[in-house]
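Cross-check.
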Amino acid sequence: MFEPAVVVAVLIAIGQFAKLYIDSKYIPLVTLVLGVCAGVIYIPADTLQAGILNGVIVGLSANGLFDVSKTLHIKTE
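Predicted model, tokenized:
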């Protein structure tokens, strides 16, 4: 249905939106749970186990990409 890269981008956006309502330390858990849901529902897989694994990969990728962008942010003064 959807490409995993699109799902990662959506999860990053949802994680940023969720920061308005919950503490930042819970964002990885939110992206992981939403990634598993997306892996089972939206990303095509042959079995349920493959869908869950795809979801874990997508959820952790979304969290990792956001963390990398935070560390690469260069302050200009």
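Residues 48-71 form the longest helix (24 residues). The two ends are 45 Å apart (CA to CA). Passed to J.P. for a second look.
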